[in-house]
TrEMBL record:
Name assigned to this protein: Glutathione S-transferase 1
Keywords, alphabetical: Transferase
Origin: domain of life: Eukaryota
UniProt key word Transferase: yes
Domain GST N-terminal: 2-83
Source species of the chain: Zeugodacus cucurbitae (Melon fruit fly)
Length: 224
């Protein structure tokens, strides 16, 4: 059987969430990098494959799956030896889905609100308002983690993997106060101990933050 093909970018938090999931499943993917900054996701061939022209995009046999949250759930359901990462129990799965929507609707949406205009459109707006808007999500995360080590309870799930890929991509621009958010920082430390975490997530997150700062500085220079 051919390996599933993943179109991805290490700079992309959603791509790294899928890589974290595949790594925990022991699943070997055929990786096809896509350069977002060069617009490789906007080619006719890519749009034909994925009309939303987003990464990651998964090709598994004849099936095309896109949106990182959908891909992570699909991979666990199809290739997981058990359902710990994405429980089949109706109530537990609903809770995981709620956290996945929190990532897509709040965490990643606010990161994108800050990053996209600067990375793609020459903006210099890295205002305290935008940073504070991201940090408000830390308050919600702290509450989620108040009584449990992971966002859905005692065990890590794909919701943790998706959320950590996003937060680690913006936590220097929007710093996490150690006195306000000790549970959140402990959660980050816990997830950093996953197998191959540095290569699978942190290296890409650090590179994205570095590029963001470089492009922001360049944009500001151009506007002088």
């Amino acid at each position: 059987m051919a390996k599933p093909v993943l179109y991805y970018a290490t700079l992309s938090p959603p791509s790294r969430a899928v890589l974290l999931t595949a790594n925990l499943l022991g699943l070997d993917l055929e990786l096809r990098p896509v350069n977002l900054l060069k617009g490789e996701h906007l080619t006719d061939d890519f749009i034909k494959m994925n009309p939303q022209h987003t990464i990651p995009t998964l090709i598994d046999e004849e099936n095309v799956v896109y949106d990182s949250h959908a891909i992570c759930g699909y991979l666990v359901d199809k290739y997981g030896e058990d359902d710990k990462l994405y429980p089949k129990d109706l109530v537990k799965r609903a809770q995981v889905n709620a956290r996945l929507h929190f990532d897509s609707g709040h965490l990643f949406a606010r990161l994108r609100f800050l990053y996209e205009p600067i990375l793609y459109y020459g903006s210099t707006d890295c205002s305290m308002d935008k940073i504070a808007y991201i940090q408000k999500t830390y308050e919600i995360m702290e509450e989620m983690l108040k009584e449990h080590p992971y966002v859905c309870g005692e065990d890590s799930t794909i919701a943790d993997l998706c959320c950590v890929a996003t937060i680690t991509s913006v936590d220097d621009v929007a710093p996490i106060d150690e006195f306000k958010f000790p549970k959140l920082l402990a959660w980050l430390k816990r997830l950093s101990e996953l197998p191959n975490y540095q290569k699978t997530n942190q290296d890409g997150a650090d590179e994205l933050k570095k590029i963001f700062k470089e492009i922001l500085a360049n944009n500001r220079t151009k506007q002088k």
